[in-house]
Amino acid sequence: MLAKLGKRIVRDRQLLIIFIPCLVFYIVFRYGPLYGLIIAFKDYSVFRGIMDSPWVGFEYFEKFFNAPEFWQLFRNTFLLGFLTLVFSFPFPILLAVLLNEVRVAWFKKGVQTASYLPTFLSVVIISSMIIDFLSPTNGVVNKVLNMFGVESKYFLIDADWFRPIYILSEIWTNSGYESIVYLAAIAGISPTLYEAAKVDGASRFRMMFNVTLPSIMPTILIMLILKTGQMITIGYEKVLLLYNTMTYEVADVFSTFVYRKGLLANDYSYGAAVGLFEAFVAMALLLISNYVSKRLGGNGLW
Amino acid sequence: MVGQRRFGLFDILNAVILFAVACSTILPLVYITAVSLSDTASVTQGKVFLFPKGLNWDAYKQVLTDVKIPRAYLNTVMYTALGTFINVLMTCLAAYPLAQRGFIGRKYWMFLIVLTMFLNPGIIPNYLIVKDLGMLDSVWALVIPNAIWTFQLIILKSFFEGTSSSIREAAKVDGASEYRILFSLMIPLSKPALASIALFYFIGHWNSYFIPMIYLNTDSLYPLQVVLREMLVFSEDTGSRLVEAAALAPQAKKNATIVLAMIPVLMIYPFAQKYFAKGVMLGSEKG
């Protein structure tokens, strides 16, 4: 056994040398932080380091569960994730189905190119456009409202508006890019299905609902499981840019809390504990959605 | 389904909807650009919509003579170039051995690598690693901890697997080492695939603000996105007082900075479209 292994190592020695940087990278930067997570159970101090800081068990978790913010964070994270999923999920499908009906190649290509655009803009630029357009002093949105006799409104400090603004911006940013998956699925539909439908006298509108949509249902389901599994992984980079003390009550989520407590206030152990809790809930969601989908007879992710 | 009919009501309605979709993504950028080219009076009076009023380049002159922005732009260019180079090199070094069928421990390596896509330790442990390695407040914090995106590694690996193994065998018979095969054969042969992964890395570096924001403390090291954030977004760090940054920086200058920040990305992404489908299909998660 060992001799055989030794032989293989000798045979693959050049490949192994090439592979070393990758190995080091994954050990240090992907598995290293997992080891670092033990500070969630320790009272980490910068001077003592990870190893020598004293164990405190579940103290930081208890602190978090008893924190006045806990239920607010829990509710905000789930609501924001869930509402974003529910409202944004249909858009890429709709876009793909409509694009599929376009018979003029250049128009289709043009719309597609335009729809991908927001995905490639940085969060900072997108957020700044949102702030700009919604500005109470010279934002476009308020200018239009004024024309209809509605008074200017400071949307970004109004807690009622945070979720709609966030969700709309997510739809705007991601729908085009996400439609690619569905377009690929539609491209795989056998043309004979459409021909048969045409012989039966189906209109193109009917075909959309009775041929195209049912044919891409498996893809839709896979995407739904994936999205449900990632539901609470909120785009905190955007939330950080758009929220403020006036909207914390709806906008503050686990990850933004981790950033504030852990990095801004330097309470590393507390931040790590909250982050671990979030990762745990996210993993549970992924496993559950995969399980449910399999039980319902659909495809799982694995 | 090629046109047996002329364009009907359905087509017209469809075209109108899709045209509106395209406008919704393009018009905001047109507006931003128009404001950046207009004079201040027209902007504050709200006269600017899709075409600049009082066309001038003052805003761009202000940006170029600003104390922070040109420096930040240069930083971004350097970080992006260095970062993308390291990304592509590391991804090649990782993908090549993993693409060899007989490579020792291949299945286990792959399992351990893919597993990291599902394990997310969170911001704090990542931060502590970077801190403990003494990388804080340096370029390395931006380019090393994310040197390989697992997702791009998988794409490149499957591309390497797809290239003919007979070329490799022939090179081996001729006595070429694995290093030689990788650098003189595989990499030149894989230019299209490398271009596509380089593009995603490029955009990732160019657009990133959170990582530089948490890892850098020195103003002169800030990349453009971090400076943009300071200019544009509520200054939350200065206290609970709500200051709308819009009131602090003149609109045209802000928008000129945005336009300059967008230009490279806007020039590049349309050429990469053919690669998107492949990328998205494989699962769309960055490692």
From TrEMBL, chain A:
Localization per Swiss-Prot or TrEMBL:
Cell membrane
Q: What is this protein called?
A: Sugar ABC transporter permease
Record bears the keyword Cell cycle: no
Q: PROSITE patterns this protein is in?
A: ABC_TM1
Could you tell me which species this protein originates from?
A: Paenibacillus nanensis
Q: Classify the source by domain of life.
A: Bacteria
Its chief place of residence is membrane
Cite the CDD domains for this sequence: TM_PBP2
Family to which the UniProt record says this protein belongs: Belongs to the binding-protein-dependent transport system permease family.
Residues spanning the membrane: 15-41, 78-99, 111-131, 209-226, 268-288
Q: Which topology term describes how it sits in the membrane?
A: Multi-pass membrane protein
TrEMBL record, chain B:
InterPro entries according to UniProt:
MetI-like (IPR000515), MetI-like_sf (IPR035906)
Q: Which GO terms describe its cellular component?
A: plasma membrane
Q: Which GO terms describe its biological process?
A: transmembrane transport
Family per record? Belongs to the binding-protein-dependent transport system permease family.
Keyword Cell membrane part of the UniProt annotation: yes
Q: Main location per UniProt?
A: membrane
Localization (cell): Cell membrane
Q: Where are the transmembrane segments?
A: 12-34, 77-96, 108-128, 140-160, 181-203, 256-272
Q: Which domain of life is it from?
A: Bacteria
- Which part of the chain is the ABC transmembrane type-1 domain? 73-272
Q: Which UniProt keywords apply?
A: Cell membrane, Membrane, Transmembrane, Transmembrane helix, Transport
UniProt membrane topology term:
Multi-pass membrane protein
Question: What is this protein called in UniProt?
Answer: Carbohydrate ABC transporter permease
Keyword Ribosomal protein annotated:
no
